[in-house]
Description:
By secondary structure, this protein is mainly alpha-helical. 65% of the residues lie in helices and 2% in strands. It has helices at residues 7-28, 36-42, 54-59, 69-88, 95-120, 129-156; strands spanning 48-49, 127-128. A two-stranded parallel ribbon has the order 1-2. Helix 1 (7-28) runs antiparallel to helix 4, helix 4 crosses helix 6 and helix 5 (95-120) packs across helix 6 (129-156). The protein starts with 6 loop residues before the first helix and ends in a 12-residue tail after the last helix. 21% of the residues are buried.
Amino acid sequence: RKYKVPVEHHIIVGLFYLYLVNVINVTMFPMPIYGIESFRDIAPNIYYNLVPLKSIIETIDINRMRLSHLIILNILMFVPFGFLLPLVSRKMTKLSKVIVLSFCASLLIEILQLTASLIYRFHFRTFNVDDILLNVFGCILGFYLLRILLPLFNKYIDLDFSDLFGSS
């Protein structure tokens, strides 16, 4: 190659791939192979939610103003996506592109979960449009967290991040 890629960039790309593998692990596994018959008795119907904000509103404890841990985990799961994606690809420095890609990734996860439920014919994972909304929100948080921390990266990491968001 004509241009040497700094070690730091390889580390960032490696972290991003490690993150993606962990997201797949959390959202798709363990996949049941044995004992499918017993699961059909527990949850014979496939659950899905196509109404935006329905499950979020249902899980908020209004009396205590507390969010469900599932809401928080869905948000936190995609924060690294919004944070690392602009560092991995300079084509992904616009929020709109990051949102579209996070939406597509989250939709793919939900479709795969629904497909697995249909294949196994029991409630394995759920398709929930609110998970997509929460994941995209988490991605947006990660994107803005990167923008806030970018001056520290420019100062302490041996990579040129000065042009990442058009900053000087």
